[in-house]
């Protein structure tokens, strides 16, 4: 009974004394605050800074839309391929890689000799052609000599006719004088006959003499006319002889010119010289002396040069430009005036930075793979397939011409000139917007589409 009573009292009594409860409930010094560790404040500060930075980034930051394409450097005036005109053996190379040549300068000598049982065919043909040439020269000399001899004879005959004409003129003058004297004598005899001093028979005799003199004068004048006709005929023969000789010489010269052409062609069959069609720098020499060359095979490439108006009046190499080739999905928004950031494969941009350029032209129609430049097609297609995601090697490409800001790169303290044919990657800067504009662009697009 006592145990149960004790247990009942212990259950009903509080855990703490009433004094403790009263002391805790008064709290006359204020509420209890636990000390916070410094890491909490640091986290809060960092979170606030990140929030502010994010807001600033969204407000003031921008994003650039770029089109990544591949390309290659080419001279502004293009390349000139030097091809062999016919098959043969390369016997001599007059230039080496990097030489600057002038228009018409000999670059290569190509041997095209052929042999048969009698010897080298070209030499045999050359001997026959020289014989024909000697025959033509002899024939020309003989015709000139014969024409000169005939001309001398005709000129001598013409001189004799002139002398004879002068003599006839003197005889005509004398005949006219005698006729005048005879007429005066007739007049005197007529007067004397009227006076009865002479007979009529004497007067008639004088008249007959006058008639004979008139007849002789007429004959002389007729001979004079015939002599003049002969002179004109001889002079015509001389002129005809000159024209005939000129015609014959023209025919002989034409035959000699044709023969010279055959000789030149035959010499070309023996060995041909390949010359530079334009001034420039020789690059990409593909063959060595002694190698067999096929007709139309490219032996070298010339990069044209132009005269520049610099202080030294020197000849400088033409500036290079970049040709980018982009598929249709990339070339849609590319236009002239856009900035281009270039990464040359030969000069890693991680070390040497990006090079700047400007789009100056975009082709209106694409180039099929077989329409690309022959010496660049494989390089262009290979680079595009490696660097452009989803590129199809059979897809047509648009050509984008880019003007370079600089023609060289500063590499390890030295200026390295950009060379033709260097492969590269480029980013065409198409659009630059604020980040918040990119975020709300779908909303703006929906708004614009919903607007009437």
Offer a quick outline of the entry.
This protein has 452 residues and is α+β, with helices and mostly antiparallel strands. It is built from ten helices and 19 strands.
Describe this structure in words.
- By secondary structure, the protein is an alpha+beta fold.
- The chain has four domains: 2-60, no CATH class; 65-75 and 323-450, Elongation Factor Tu (Ef-tu), domain 3; 77-105 and 276-318, RNA polymerase II/Efflux pump adaptor protein, barrel-sandwich hybrid domain (OB fold (Dihydrolipoamide Acetyltransferase, E2P), Beta Barrel); 119-269, Helix Hairpins, CATH 1.10.287.1490.
- Helices cover 49% and strands 24% of the residues.
- A hairpin with a 2-residue loop joins strand 17 and strand 18 (414-417).
- The chain is elongated and about 225 Å long.
- The protein starts with a helix and ends with a helix.
